[in-house]
Amino acid sequence: MKIVLGQDLLKANEVIARSNRAAFEASGTFVANMLGSPGSGKTTLLEAILPDLMSGLRVAVIEGDLATSRDAERIEALGVASVQINTGGGCHLDAGMVAAGFESLDLDNTDVLFIENVGNLICPAGFSLGEHRRVVVLSVTEGDDKVEKYPPMFARADAVALNKMDLLSHVKFDVKKATDHIERLNTGIRMFSVCAVTGEGTADLRRWLLDGRRSCQEHKT
Length: 221
Ligand code: MG
Ligand code: ZN
Fold this sequence. Notes:
Blueprint: H1 7-27, E1 30-36, H2 42-54, E2 59-65, H3 70-76, E3 81-86, H4 95-103, E4 112-116, E5 133-139, H5 146-149, H6 151-155, E6 159-163, H7 175-185, E7 190-193, H8 202-218
Parallel strand pairs: 1-4, 1-5, 2-3, 2-4, 5-6, 6-7
Helix pairs in contact: 1-4, 2-8
């Protein structure tokens, strides 16, 4: 048997992603895939938005990393159910890993599930996990050229959280240039300016996620 790596791999992933989505729909769980470079602030952003979401909603997190359970421990410290997936060198999460991950979560009693992907601006863009929304965390310390250099990540996202805005005056990052470029790649994408460490701007992102959850529930057949 010949395996055309890439195409067959992505096709197989798509099948599992669809079954993940069916499981999420069946349990009424809204799922957000959080993507971005290592150090962009994905976990810190979750730490900023989870406490408010937890008042009223049952939240869980799947953490993807090459190694360690550090991020899952940070999430658990907030009192949120979390599962750590170690990819053992793998540079992205795929739908099968996520399926194995949510086995140990109580989906029927989970309203919102966040999946924090492996820190990487490249291949996680190609792997659907069955999520309802994709959020890319791009920090201003990474440079505004990252949009041009890694277009698929931004073209396939539903929202970008521009993070570390408190450091903007210290770095070379043209917000307008980056925003224009993102919007050219992806019309209708939502942009949020945030500082995950202080929580500034994160309420807007949280509200957008809640709106997304509501519209998914309404359009469920
Ligand atoms: Mg992290
Ligand atoms: Zn990868």
